[in-house]
Amino acid sequence: MFAQTLIDSSLVGKKIVSIQIQGNDKTKPSVILREMKQKVGDSLDPYLLENDRKRIQNLYLFNRVIISAEPEEEDARIRIVVTEQWYLFPFPVLFINEGDWNKLSWGAGLTYLNFRGRAETLVFVFWLGYNPSIHIDYANPWFGGKRNLFTGANLFYSHVRSKHFQEEAVTEKHLGLQWTIGKRFGPHTFPSISVGYKEVTFSPSVPGQTLSSDGRDRLPFLGFTLIWDHRDLKEYPHTGWYVMLTAKKTGFPTMPADYFKYGFDLRKYFPLGPCTLALRTKANLSGRKIPLYDRVFLGYGERVRGHFFEKSEGENMALASVAFRFPLLPVRYFNLSGHPYFTNLKFGVSLGLFADTGLTWFQKEKIKSSMLQTGYGLGLHLHLPYINLLRLEVAFDERGNEQFITDLYVDI
C-alpha cells in the first residue's frame, strides 16, 4: 500500500477528542485538516479516516502519510504523521518535440510546490531551440476562508511551429494571459470560470491563416470547467470516478473570431481485489469557424498507443481507452539518508494491459471507421519518488506493428 491507516478495532465509534499532526515542518496544519471529513467531536470511522488519508496523499506534498488512532481516556485521539517532500525544484529543460531528435528544446525552470506552506504552486519556466516559450503560473487551491475558493493565473509567450503547415516553416506567435477562479464544494466537486486574452500572429504571413484580415487575431475568451473527482489516489487510481466537463467561448459576434469549444473526460475505476479495471472516454468538440491554431490533434498531448508518433488533425476529437493493472511488487518505502526529503521514498512495480482507440474529424466531415486509430499492448509501471510513475510499454497497431514507449504518469 502507498501508506497506512492504523486503528485498533476497540476505538471504532469512539468520540474523536483531538487530531495531532507531526512532520509538517513547512506545511500549515490547516492544509491537512481541510482535506478531512473526520473532525473533532465525530465518532471514529475507519472507512472515512482511510479516505481522509488518501485525500491528504493527493495533495502531492508528502512522500508518505500515516494515520493512526490512539486511546485517550474513554475517547480516541487521531495522529497524522507526514513525510514532507522537497518543494523547491530548480530544473533544466531538455525535451524532444514530436518524437524528432532534430526538434530539441532546452532551457530552465523553477517550481515551488508548497509556497508559503499553503499548497500554493509557483512555476517559472522558459526554453529555447524548437518552439521557444516562457511561462509563469500561479495556483492557489484554497483561499477566502470558509468560502472555499481556489484560483490560478498564467502568463505565456511562445513561438510555435505550426502543426497545420507540415511542409513549410511557419511559426505561430502566441501571447496571452488567463485567470481562473472557482469554488470547492466538499472534497470532490470543483466548478470554475476562466477569463483571458490571447493574440496570435503567423510568421511568415500565410494567406487565410488568421481569422482577422490584418494578420493578428485578438482572442478574448470565457471558459467554464466542472470537475467531479472521486478517485482514491490520483497518482494511480484503484477505485472511483473522474468527470470533467468543459465549455469555452472565444470572441464575440462582432469580431472575426467567434467560435466555441466544449468537451468531456469520463473515467471509471473498478477494484478487482488488488487489480484495477480502468475505463476512459473523452471528446473535444467545436462549433463555428475554428482557426488553424485552435484545431485538435492526436499525436501530441493526446495519443493512441500503437500510433504514438502519428499525427492527425481536426476540429473535433474522440478517444476511448481500457486498462487492466495489477501489482507485481507492491509499493514499499525506503530511506536513502536521515534527511526528511530522502526518507519514506516509494518503490513498486505494476503490470498494465491496455487498448486505445481515437480519431479526429472536421465539422462537415462524415465519420468513417477507417479514420480510427487503434492500438493495444502492455507495460511495466514503476512507482518512483517525486515523479510518481514511469511507464515502459510496448504497443501494437491494427496490423501488429510494434513500438516501444517510455512515458510518465498514469495512462488512464
Please characterize this protein's 3D structure.
By secondary structure, the chain is mainly β. It has a domain at 4-84: Ubiquitin-like (UB roll). Helix content is 4%, strand content 59%. It contains two helices and 22 strands. The protein has helices spanning 29-33, 46-57, and strands at 4-6, 16-22, 62-72, 75-84, 88-97, 100-115, 120-129, 133-143, 149-161, 171-183, 189-203, 216-229, 240-251, 258-272, 275-287, 296-298, 312-314, 316-334, 345-361, 373-384, 388-397, 402-408. A 16-stranded antiparallel sheet has the order 5-6-7-8-9-10-11-12-13-14-15-18-19-20-21-22, with no helix packed on it. A four-stranded mixed sheet has the order 1-3-4-2, covered by helices on one side. The two termini are 20 Å apart.
User: What is the radius of gyration computed over CA atoms, rounded to a whole number of angstroms?
Assistant: 24 Å
Could you describe the largest sheet, including whether it forms a barrel? 16 strands, antiparallel
Note the total helix count: 2
CATH architecture of the domain at 4-84: Roll
Helix content: under 10%
> Within the CATH hierarchy, at the fold level, what is the topology of the domain at 4-84?
Ubiquitin-like (UB roll)
What overall geometry do the principal axes of the alpha carbons give?
Answer: globular
Mean pLDDT comes to 90
Structural class: mainly beta
As laid out across the biggest beta sheet, the strand order is 5-6-7-8-9-10-11-12-13-14-15-18-19-20-21-22
As a percent range, the share of strand residues is over 45%
Q: Oligomer, anyone?
A: single chain
